[in-house]
Amino acid sequence: MSAALQNENPEVKALSQLPSRAQEEENLFLKGNEEWLWDTSDELESLEKVRDGVDAQEIFDLLAKINDPEHPLTLAQLSVVKLEDIDVQDNAHGNSFVVVYITPTIPHCSMCTLIGLCIRVRLERCLPPRFHVDVKVKKGTHASELQVNKQLNDKERVAAACENEQLLNVLNSMMSTCV
Amino acid sequence: MDQVRHVILVLSGKGGVGKSSVTTQLALSLHDSKVHSRPLKIGILDIDLTGPSIPRMFGKDVEQSRIRQSSAGWIPVYTDETKEIGLMSLGFLLPSKKDSVVWRGPKKAAMIRQFVSDVHWGELDYLIIDTPPGTGDEHLTIVESLLAETSDVRNGPIDGAVMVTTPQALATLDVQKEIDFCKKASIRILGIVENMSGFICPHCADCTNIFSSGGGQTLAEKYKIPFLGSVPIDPKFGEMIENQNSSTNLSKLYPETEMSKVFFPIVQNFFHQIYNNRSLELVAGLSGHDGRVWSVASHPVLPLFASGSQDKTVRIYNSDTLQLVHVIDGFHSRSVRRVAWRPVDRPILAVASFDGTISINEKIDDDWECTAALEGHENEVKCIAWSPGGNYLATCSRDKSVWIWETTEDDEFDCMAVLQEHTQDVKVVAWHPSEDLLVSGSYDDTICFWRDDGDDWALTCQLQGHQSTVWALAFSPSGSTLVSADNEGNIMLWTKTFSNESEAINNSTNILRPSLQEEWVRKATLPHVHQGAVYSLSWLNDKVLASAGSDGKIVVYESEQHDDNIWRVSIEKENAHDVYEINSIAWLGNDKLVSGGDDGESRIWHLD
């Protein structure tokens, strides 16, 4: 890592501001309480659906705690990874797709490719093989958007990079806070 | 008639089943189908002399459209200026649309014969013949005339017949007579279309079966003929036909309608019947690698194939028995990216790795030995290719260079050229089967052509047809065509142009050595089937090509007999390695294919 930080003053989110499933389930429970007089079977069904399929919240949870390479903060706190920028299409036993759009903290961030690579590796390790992962820079947020996207989506380059021990060490330390 | 590729007969047992409507829809759907990369040229011959309704279906007012004569013959009436759909009907020859045609047999027969011999159809993909109901003079005559006219240019006068029926069992009784006629006249039955099968309400799009249901399917099963599909009654279609005028164009309006969507699966089944499509059947899945299989390669002469993997090893199998013969292990420190057999009688395998080196492994007596190690690339080697004679080995790398190595007498390798024109990683190299021509494809989206000009290898052409990384390149066995594939799933065919002008323009100061610059142009694009990168291409012969990629599909394409610029998809094998991507494919002999995927398996397929 370089001596001078790329971005001295990033915008940081508090932990409580991050979207999480606990909040969602609490909402569902409260809603359920109102409606249980009417019909409980629907609520159970919808909870079950949330558990079986992989959804955007689950992907977000997998990525949220990845450390930024420069700051002692996570990608979620820096808003590099956002829940609304994750698209998931889960077909229980067939080909499924995930697209994660990342928002670098500044438009000339040179750590962008590294962060994108880390996200890819994390998802490749955690998700079942049926998932095809795409990591892209969110439109308009980076000066070299096309180049970064091309690198992140070149299977051969990604595979070769992951065999590089030094790089692998950096990636592992970024993911050290993840469960 | 010699440029007509397929002749189809449309028959029905009874009148009033909507045969002309089915003929029209078949013509429009075929025209619009994406089976080739261009719209198909269709001709419709309406020999229903007592009720010539085809002109009306296309909005051609018979009093205004006249058939013109040329020295080559009668010119069909085209539906629009593209001349992709041409019509020929007795209706155009009658002085008025109110005239009836009250002719006896011989005159009808003569008319039909003239339609066959005197009309200049030009180049047609399909000629669809709309016949009168039942079986009669017209049917016999058309078969005879076609036989007489086309016996020396076609295998049989008619490629097949499509039968139209309505759902009631009564209508289907008459179709049995048609089936009998086809048998007697040796006409292949492509299938049955059940017309007026239900009514689509224009307000709620609900389909009601007015005329009972299931008749067509029952008939198909009873007589063992294919059931192509059912077409409902849609009042909107009738309206559209009636409201045509000189400014509307049915062939442009039709693809937007609901009817065309309903007809689409019928056309798909039709193609399936016409082309006798082949299939790929899984023979075996060979596991053993502990990581993805990056590359598979089959020996040109011996029954051997090899698979190279991320697990740094190479597994060599006997391609007849599928037994594991040897495992090359312990030489490379990183993933094996590519394997390639030297085109000689002995088993010599070049292995390229992400560790930047290439090892040459040979089977000497009964042992496999590593006989040479080629070093020099600065980082990962992406691809290797032996020249057809086995004397040169081309290698390429992420270091943006292409190296050409030459074998010396004592089987040592000397680097004879380092080519550096690409601005990014070079992903693939491939040799021409007969000339000393090397091509390379790169992350920079271009394809470079290299030739030996005596002193050195020089760049003779650079193609920029792709808009993303070029992953695969291969020359056809005859050397006339180069196929290339990219990261977006586009596959293009290129051929060299020979123009005297280009030689004159490139002034060469050295009159003894003509300019090496050459021009390659894109001659066709294959139908776009892959949804994602295409990583591997392999020619079976000049007319059959296979591709595979990140969408896990293996696709086989075939070119038309008469024209190798027209390609269609012959097999689309989805999920060939379940949900995993496929990195490499290679043909084994004439009827087997091996594929290597991210699941670490090499799968063997048989072409049926």
UniProtKB/TrEMBL annotation, chain A:
Pfam families attached to this UniProt entry: FeS_assembly_P (PF01883)
One GO location term (cellular component): cytosolic [4Fe-4S] assembly targeting complex
Entry keyword annotation includes Phosphoprotein: no
InterPro entries in the record: FSCA_dom_sf, MIP18, MIP18-like
Transmembrane segments: none
Tree of life domain: Eukaryota
Coiled coil location: none
Keywords from the named record: Chromosome partition
Protein name according to UniProt: Sister chromatid cohesion protein
Organism per entry: Schizosaccharomyces octosporus (strain yFS286)
From TrEMBL, chain B:
WD repeats: 286-327, 374-406, 419-450, 463-494, 593-608
UniProt family annotation: Belongs to the Mrp/NBP35 ATP-binding proteins family. NUBP2/CFD1 subfamily. Belongs to the WD repeat CIA1 family.
InterPro entries reported for this sequence: CIAO1/Cia1, Mrp-like_CS, Mrp/NBP35_ATP-bd, NUBP2/Cfd1_eukaryotes, P-loop_NTPase, WD40/YVTN_repeat-like_dom_sf, WD40_repeat_dom_sf, WD40_rpt
Pfam families tied to this protein: ParA, WD40
Species of the source: Schizosaccharomyces octosporus (strain yFS286)
PROSITE patterns: MRP, WD_REPEATS_2, WD_REPEATS_REGION
Role summary: Component of the cytosolic iron-sulfur (Fe/S) protein assembly (CIA) machinery. Required for maturation of extramitochondrial Fe-S proteins. The NBP35-CFD1 heterotetramer forms a Fe-S scaffold complex, mediating the de novo assembly of an Fe-S cluster and its transfer to target apoproteins.
Residues at which [4Fe-4S] cluster binds: 201, 204
An example Gene Ontology CC term for this record: cytosol
GO terms, biological process: iron-sulfur cluster assembly
UniProt name for this protein: Probable cytosolic iron-sulfur protein assembly protein 1
Record's signal peptide: none
Keywords: 4Fe-4S, ATP-binding, Cytoplasm, Iron, Iron-sulfur, Metal-binding, Nucleotide-binding, Repeat, WD repeat
Positions that bind ATP: 13-20
GO molecular function: 4 iron, 4 sulfur cluster binding; ATP binding; ATP-dependent FeS chaperone activity; metal ion binding
Protein location: Cytoplasm
